[in-house]
Amino acid sequence: MDADAFLDASHRASPPAGWAWLSAAFETILGAILLWVLARSIPLGQPLVRGWVGMVGLILLLHFGTFQIVALLWQSLGVKAEPIMSAPLHSTSLGEFWGKRWNLGFRQLARELIFRPLYKRLGADTAGFFVFVVSGLIHDLVISLPARRGYGLPTLYFLLQGAGVTVERSRFGKRFGLGQGVRGSCFMVVFLAVPVFGLFHPWFVLPVILPFMRAIHAL
């Protein structure tokens, strides 16, 4: 999504390391196993678990695996194509997770179209929070609208993420070290994991994800 860097022939990317290829291949294979093998082994009476396993497999297969391989192929040709994911599990703060490691394609787009236009008028904190608002609305469009239920839950999830980043960067958050180290990691996990079932709510998993999995013969 960073067209300037991608199209700038004067900046040549270094050939990717061998471990990067191995990591991308592993995540691709793991995602495929979760999606086409493990999900179908879960009993029929646990459809939510089936859907979640398949969804995690799909994310690994695409975002962490296939898209990573595409980026590595471009890098091997000297093109500066950054992977869409940058080791998000290595994050030690909520701000680092969303701002530097998770879905960098959307981050680049949001920075250019939302954050920068609002930054000078509203300040960094408010502009950053508004990015979470827009992200929530977009996720409602792609999650709740196809499901025709659960409206507002994805938006609420991202409002909580924005609130978490605000607290993390506040005087209180800095005083208690919520943006770094073990405390930062724990704070991040709580905000990411506890409300995640509101983001991918059952009204999306059951009528959308499961039929999709059947369509691609994962079930």
Task: Put the structure in a nutshell.
This protein is mainly alpha-helical.
What percent of residues are in strands? under 5%
Give a count of the beta strands, DSSP E runs of length 2 or more: 0
Output the radius of gyration.
19 Å
| Largest sheet, strands/sense/barrel | none
User: How many angstroms separate the termini?
Assistant: 33 Å
Derived structural class: mainly alpha
Whole-number tally of structural domains: 2
Mean pLDDT: 93
Q: Could you estimate the helical fraction of the residues in percent?
A: over 70%
Helix-strand sequence? HHHHHHHHHHH
- Principal-axis shape: globular
Task: Describe the fold and architecture.
The protein has 219 residues and is mostly helical. The chain folds into two domains: 1-85; 87-201, no CATH class. Helices cover 74% and strands 0% of the residues. It has helices spanning 3-7, 18-41, 47-76, 94-101, 104-122, 124-147, 153-169, 171-175, 181-193, 196-199, 202-215. Helix 2 packs antiparallel against helix 3 and helix 3 (47-76) packs across helix 11 (202-215).
